[in-house]
């Protein structure tokens, strides 16, 4: 709730602070238990920073991270000390983007997947290997792989190892940051399907961070669209894809490739003018106005607040009701 994170920009050998990058700016979002929230936006929009703040891998500058525990109590994770955070560290885990650099090449799978079990002392040392073998089976790898090193495996297999490591502590929320983006297209679907199966079996909740709207459509129940640190639109996936209410969402949807090979025409692509706004120098008024084809005078002076325009639909645009934006089907039939 109202979560913000800014990084100082420093200059010179004394590290004088000359400005701030507002990576995440007053973000409100909700992730319901057992659901997948897809967090989308171009690279540099603050998605990863937001994910890391939720894990407290980054310290939020302000705001709350309200976490409903299994016993129903709600705790704000933002102000907790490292020691106070410890019990929650096992509940919220991360799957990283790059299955090549996120696994230590000098460690065996038994060591990699067993590490969180050892660090958090959740099972006796004598039981770690059995647990790891079970975890490997759960992600579709053979338990005999225990003694092998990451370089013996393909990208898809390594990401399975990454998932096994994330699941080792029976988490409730998994933050997956571009978890399959580095993989070959041919193995992406396998890993996404595995993630979906694991979600059902383990009652997992996902924050699925991706720049790929096609994957988000496949994975997410709810979508949150970010632009330079701001949430600009949220809603249930199917509805948001059918009828976007923010010009930025409309443009992102227009770039999703049409999966139907028989489609008469390609999707009409909306090319955004200019570059992504600089998060250290966000424009006045609407942060999207420098690229928005619909911008009007008001957009220069007034920041649009994220307002609820229909049950479950929120948008930060002054004119969304009047624009008649096109969804993925309208764009496809262009
Ligand atoms: Fe475009 Fe104005 Fe809406 Fe911002 S508020 S998205 S500039 S129309
Ligand atoms: Mg990122």
Automatic annotation (TrEMBL):
InterPro entries per record: AAA+_ATPase, ABC_transp_ATP-bind, ABC_transporter-like_ATP-bd, ABC_transporter-like_CS, Oligopep_ABC_C, P-loop_NTPase
Domain ABC transporter: from-to ranges: 1-253
Domain of life: Bacteria
Keyword Plastid: no
Keywords: ATP-binding, Nucleotide-binding, Transport
GO annotation (BP), single: peptide transport
Keyword Transport attributed: yes
GO molecular function terms noted in the UniProt entry: ATP binding; ATP hydrolysis activity
A Pfam family it matches: ABC_tran
Family the UniProt entry places it in: Belongs to the ABC transporter superfamily.
Record protein name field: Oligopeptide transport ATP-binding protein OppF
């Amino acid at each position: 709730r109202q979560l913000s994170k800014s990084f100082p920009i420093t200059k010179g050998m004394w590290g004088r602070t000359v400005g701030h990058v507002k990576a995440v700016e007053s973000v409100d979002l909700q992730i319901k238990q057992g659901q997948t929230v897809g967090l989308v936006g171009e690279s540099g929009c603050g998605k990863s920073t937001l994910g890391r703040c939720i894990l407290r891998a980054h310290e939020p500058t302000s705001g709350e991270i309200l976490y409903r525990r299994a016993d129903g109590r709600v705790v704000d994770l933002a102000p907790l000390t490292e020691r106070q955070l410890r019990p929650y560290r096992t509940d919220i885990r991360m799957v990283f983007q790059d299955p090549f650099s996120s696994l230590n090449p000098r460690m065996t799978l038994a060591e990699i997947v067993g590490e969180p079990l050892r660090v958090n002392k959740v099972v006796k040392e004598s039981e770690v290997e059995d647990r790891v073998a079970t975890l490997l089976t759960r992600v579709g790898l053979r338990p005999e792989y225990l003694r092998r090193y990451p370089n013996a495996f393909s990208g898809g297999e390594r990401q399975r190892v990454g998932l096994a490591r994330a699941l080792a502590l029976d988490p409730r929320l998994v933050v997956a940051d571009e978890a399959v983006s580095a993989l070959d297209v041919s193995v992406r679907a396998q890993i996404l399907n595995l993630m979906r199966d694991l979600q059902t079996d383990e009652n997992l909740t996902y924050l699925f961070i991706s720049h790929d709207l096609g994957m988000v459509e496949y994975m997410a129940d709810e979508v949150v669209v970010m632009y330079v640190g701001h949430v600009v639109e949220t809603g249930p996936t199917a509805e948001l894809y059918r009828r976007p209410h923010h010009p930025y969402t409309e443009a992102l949807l227009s770039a999703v490739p049409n999966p139907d090979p028989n489609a008469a025409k390609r999707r009409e692509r909306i090319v955004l003018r200019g570059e992504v706004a600089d998060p250290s120098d966000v424009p006045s008024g609407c942060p999207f106005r420098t690229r928005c084809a619909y911008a009007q005078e008001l957009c220069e002076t007034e920041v649009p607040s994220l307002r609820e325009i229909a049950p479950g639909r929120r948008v930060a645009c002054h004119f969304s009701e009047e624009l008649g934006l096109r969804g993925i089907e309208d764009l496809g039939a262009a």
